[in-house]
Amino acid sequence: MTSLIAKPVAVVVLLFARAITAVRPFWHEGRLPRRRSIFFANHSSHGDFILIWAVLPPRLRRRVRPVAGADYWLKSKLRSFIGRDVFNAVLIDRNRDGRTMDPVESMGEAMREGSSLILFPEGTRNQSDASLQPFKSGLFHLAALHPDFELVPVWIANLNRVMPKGEFVPIPLICTVTFGEPMHLADGEDKDMFLERAREALLALAPKKAAE
Amino acid sequence: MSATQFDMMVLVLGVCGILLVASFVGHVLERRLSPDGSNPAIENLNARINAWWVMAILIAIAFVAGRIGVLLLFGFCSFAALREFVTLTNTRRADHWALATAFFVVLPLQYALLWIENYEIFSVFIPVYAFLLMPIISAVRGDTQHFLVRIAEVQWALMICVFCASHVPALLTLHIPGYEGRNVLLIAFLVIVVQSSDVLQYVWGKMIGRTKIAPRLSPSKTVEGFVGGIACASLVGAGLWWITPFSPLQAGAMAFLITLMGFFGGLVMSAIKRDRGVKDWGHLIDGHGGLIDRLDSVVFSAPIFFHLTRYFWSPG
Q: Which Pfam families did the record assign (chain B) (predicted)?
């Protein structure tokens, strides 16, 4: 029954996102991503994963699952319907103490089932003035455990202006989603080196700020 | 079939014919010069021609649907243009409610005023009431940084994308003796003249363009393209006198004014793009860039065309 409603809801969300943002993808060298990919992106809004999801071609969209915090997405019936049923999110417990399932384990399970992931390695939405917060280590562990997956940096531009924190009416503004060159964990690269390299790769995709 | 429908048919067939020739030429050029899709100029030309087909078909559908179709089409154009414009502004979080009001209150109201044909309020709603209301909404949030720049940008965006653009469908509200029921042809006249002027300036510029007319604003515009394009488009306008309430000479003069305003409108919008460091306003139309890239000359000429027609042909 829920899945019967979930499909049309997904279409409505997609149309709404397009009407507000006219979202446009920029692929790396015009090439679509591979089927086994981890998309890691900057995080400034709850709608971030929807934009990535919206620009992927349907073939890839069917197999991609966003990774999201269970604390937020299980808080109400509506949120859990949207997170779990509509977008099939991999919900992870962000609370270190007292969690029963290791996030890397949950994500790995989804990947073994053939899903791609949308991941926000900053961990939470970026409310600071910095373009990008430090990365959590999950991306490194996934890269080490699943070398057959490509790690694709994805920069989402402008969505934070569409709906700043605390506002509930979205402003229509044009958003872009820029895909960077896929990367892998290099031989002998340690955690800090890799996370720094991934962060740099993502930052390099950010549009230059217009002169103020 | 009424006379209006007949004229409309002739127009549609004419436009289809021109587009068919353009598509054919584009196809031949692609076979000759860019069989593997490697020549960006040819690819862009064909993307443009395809987009022209889509735009022509959309306008034709709106005309068939009547007043509501035309209002919805231009309402959507205003929405998409405003979306492109606001994306490039310095607006901050404190402008959130002002912008929400612009998109979801001012824009629909402006078109609703056309629907009920209330010209008095239509003509002052954005220049006076929105002009005063918007900065009030922004001010109460208390963020003063770049305040004047921000409120000026929002007002400018509304004037260009909503107020000026809405003067195209406003042509439907004019009451011209002896021209009843044919007003939709005035829109066709305006759009055809402006767009053919854009295309003809491009063609003349490519063929014999030497002298740059505004190198800092728009390096592709030339004096030769300007003169040739404006002259030819004025002739096109004169040749279309039979769909207007004007004589051939008047139609030519109107077309001349329209194309002149369109040309300078293009320059103004280019200056804004340069300042903001972008090449196109957006990416809505394949090959053309954003909607404003296509609409800029229409937007600048529509209010002038509307007023001249209203003052001289629409008594009372």
A: CTP_transf_1 (PF01148)
- Would residue A210 count as lying in a domain? no
Residue A118 — φ and ψ, nearest 5°? -110, 120
At A144, the amino acid letter reads: A
Quick: pLDDT tens for B208-242.
888 898 888 888 889 999 999 999 999 999 999 99
Listed in sequence order, the residues at least 6 apart from A56 whose beta carbon sits closer than 8 Å to its beta carbon are: A25, A33, A64
The ranges of chain B with pLDDT < 50 are none
* Alpha carbon of B88: minimum distance to chain A alpha carbons (Å): 9
Interface test with chain A among B76, B83, B85, B87, by most A beta carbons within 10 Å = B87
**Chain A residues with beta carbon closer than 8 angstroms to that of B80:** 22
CATH code, domain with A79: 3.40.1130.10
Contacts of A210 in chain B (CB under 8 A): 88, 276-277
pTM of this structure: 0.90
Confirm whether A53 is domain-assigned.
yes
Number of domains in chain A: 1
pLDDT value at residue A211 = 38
Give the residue numbers spanning the domain of A166: 2-203
Residues on chain A bordering chain B, Cβ-to-Cβ distance under 8 angstroms: 22, 24, 158, 161, 164, 167, 169, 171-174, 210-212
List of chain A residues with pLDDT < 70: 1-2, 209-212
CA contacts within 13 A on the Cβ side of B139: 7
CB contact under 8 A, A171 and B99: yes
Judged by CB atoms closer than 8 Å, whether chains meet at A210 and B96 is answered as no
